[in-house]
Amino acid sequence: MLDEAGPLTHLDQAGNARMVDVAQKEITSREATASGTVVMSPATLAAISSGATPKGDVFSVARIAGIMAAKRTHELIPLCHPLALDAVSVVIVANPPDRVLITARVGVTARTGVEMEALTAVSVAALTVYDMCKALDRSMRIERIRLDEKSGGRSGHYRRD
């Protein structure tokens, strides 16, 4: 098709960035899981857990924000393919005394994977937790956003040790 620069590269023949042509790749079931942590004061975690934050239910809003972000990754990350995702889940749990753990799992049947969608879901969910709680704790930290596992596609299975 348009893949004049060779297979699966983000560079054209002149060395300019472009979207990878995945037309020749096989359509397969693909899944990715990513995770991250928001570290905060124990008092902030207690406020979130008891529902006593000024902006309401932090976990519900952050979960929806993460799901919506996964669906719009191609609008946020240059050169990502728009994908019709089959499933997105974002799980957010308190981990006392001072952190929130976020895990996103994204699935698709397509020619390209969903690692960026899972990572984007976690990132936006973490930023939403921060935004909803910053009046309580400006020293919060978003940490350890990472790909934990991916399956499907040409590169096979990956799982973080």
TrEMBL record:
Family: Belongs to the MoaC family.
Superkingdom of the source species: Bacteria
Lyase keyword on record: yes
Molybdopterin cofactor biosynthesis C (MoaC) domain mapped to chain residues: 19-153
EC number: 4.6.1.17
Pathway: Cofactor biosynthesis; molybdopterin biosynthesis
Catalytic activity: (8S)-3',8-cyclo-7,8-dihydroguanosine 5'-triphosphate = cyclic pyranopterin phosphate + diphosphate
Name of the gene: moaC
Keyword annotations from UniProtKB, A to Z: Lyase, Molybdenum cofactor biosynthesis
SUPFAM superfamilies per record: Molybdenum cofactor biosynthesis protein C, MoaC
Job description of the protein: Catalyzes the conversion of (8S)-3',8-cyclo-7,8-dihydroguanosine 5'-triphosphate to cyclic pyranopterin monophosphate (cPMP).
Protein name: Cyclic pyranopterin monophosphate synthase
